[in-house]
Request: fold
Amino acid sequence: MDHSFTSAEDFLHNDSFLRYCMGLDEKEVLWWDTWIQEHPEHQAHVDQAREIFNAINGQQGQLHAAVGHFRVLLREHATQTATQEPATPTPPVRGQQRRLHWWHAAAAIALLLTAAGGWYQYSHYRNQQQIAARTRMSDVQPGSSRAMLTLADGTSVPLDSTGAGRFQEKDGTRINKGQGTLTYDNNNHEEETVLFNTLSTPRGGEYQLVLPDGSRVWLNAASSLRFPTRFTGKDRTVYLTGEAYFEIAPNASQAFHVQLNNGQQIAVLGTSFNVMDYEDEHATQTTLVTGKVKVTLPGGQQTLLAPAQQATITKGSDRIAVTDADIDKTIAWKTGTFEFDEDELPTIMRQLARWYDVRVVYAGTIPTQHYSGSIRKQATLSQALRILQTAGIHYSVTDKTITIQTTSN
Reply:
C-alpha cells in the first residue's frame, strides 16, 4: 500500500482509506487505526479528509456507500461548486490540473455545507474523534453464540460457542452440544408425558438448534423458543418470542406450527421462513423464503403467503398486510450483517441495542430521516458507531448507554 500521503487529498484518493471511513472491512479498519496511531504527523490530514468524507456522505443518509459511488457523489458536488471558484491566474502543471481542480472544489464543498447549515456535522467531527477514542478504551464487543437451555425439571444449562458435550433428558432424549449449535436426536421413546425444553438467548447472543424432527432454527438475540423433546400426534408446535429463522423438515402427516405470545400462529408443512415478534417493535412480521405458510390471528383472520412475501401485523391491529419482501434484508442477521433500506433511526438502533446489549436514549427530538446501508455483526460497538457517524448521526457513549444527539439541542 502506498504510504506517501502529503495532504487530505491523498487520503481521499485512496480506496483503502475510503473503505476505512465506511467501516466496510474489519481488517482495514484495524490496519488504519494502527497506522494512524503510528504516524501522528498525518493526524491533521486524516482529520481533514474524514471531515470532508462525513460532510458529503452524511447528506445522503447512507450508513456506507461503495467506494465508486462515493467518488461519484464527491465529483457531482465538485462540479456544482466549481463554477463558484475564482479563475486561477496561473494554470497548474499539465497532468495535475484535473486532480487539483477536484481537490479545490472538494474543499469548497465543506465550506458551502458549513454556510448552508452543515456546521453541526462538519465541526462536530473532532469531538466525535475524542468520543471514539474513549469508546475504544472500553469497547463493547459484538454478540456471540451463547444461550441458556432450560430442561423440563427447571435445570438451567449455559451454552456458548466453545467445546462440545452430550447430556440426556429424563425421557431419554439425547442432546448434543456443538459449536454454537444444539442438536436433539430423534428417538422412538413412547413416553406418555411429553417434556418441554426452552432455549433462550440473551441480548448480545444467538444460537442454532436442530429439533427432534430435524428442523433447524436460528435464534436471534433476546429471543426464546419453547419446544417438546419429541413431536407426537398430528402437529409439531413450538412457541417463540423474539426472532427466529426456520428451516422445517417436511412431514405431510404432521403440520408444523409456530405459536406467538399474541396468539398469532404460523402453520407450515415444509418450508423456510423468518418470524420477528419482539415486544419493543411496532409490528410482527412473518417472511416466507420457500414453500408456503398460513398466518392466522386470534380473531380468525388468516392469509396464505407465497415465497418472497411478508405478512405484517401492527401491534393492536386485527389486519394482516401482505407485501413483497426483501429477503436479503430480512434474513441478513442470520448471515452476519444488519441490512437497512430507508429505515428510521429508532429501527436501526433497536437492532444494535439487542446485539451489543446497550441502552439507547435520544437527546431532543428523534431524527425523522431514513437511512440505508449495512453494518457487520462482528464489528465492535465503536466500529458500528463510526459507520453511523458517516451518515451524519452524532452520539455520545457513557458506560453502555448511547445518547443520540440532534441538531435541536
